[in-house]
What does this fold into?
Amino acid sequence: YNDCSYEFCAREERLGSTPLDQALIVSHDLIRDFKAKHKVQKMNFITFTDGDSNPIHSVRDTSLQVERVPTQHYGSLFSVMIQNKMIRDISKSQATERLLTSIRERYNTNTIGFFMADSVKAWNWKALDCMKSESKITPESPFEYHKLEEYKSKLLKEYKANKCVSKSNILGYNQYYLVKSGRSLETVADEFETKE
It folds into this structure.
């Protein structure tokens, strides 16, 4: 969310509309520190977003001559160093999934995502992402767009029955939920009880 007025913010402070990938990078440190401080063994990591992440913008220091930093200046792939471990060859479209996978593998977390579509267009784009992820489609493999309508129909049928769509092991999440915003959302004010 960009709540920074342009006349009062430095360019470097503007995050854009959905800095999800940037937040996932920072979350590595937060999760590590939280688990160590509180001796947590099992942890759920939850995201709630209404859009895909803006691309990660990077600054390249060409004077830095370190083997682990790629030397190509232009290209569609980039690498991210997080806690002295490199995540290599990330494309813009894979960044969120690769960062979530890194969190899952490094910290043994259960990753849960909620996507709230605020328009038919947003719902359709996320349906396409889910289909590509489930089908293990890569940029090099052919994509059969005629199957997308059938896939969207299945999602809509599940949504009508449950008021959400639930997918397992998709887009870097252990569990992923698609919901629609607006008047169709309901909340229940039940108390949460625990057994002592």
In short: Confidence is low (pLDDT under 50) at residues 66-74. The chain has four helices and six strands. The radius of gyration is 19 Å.
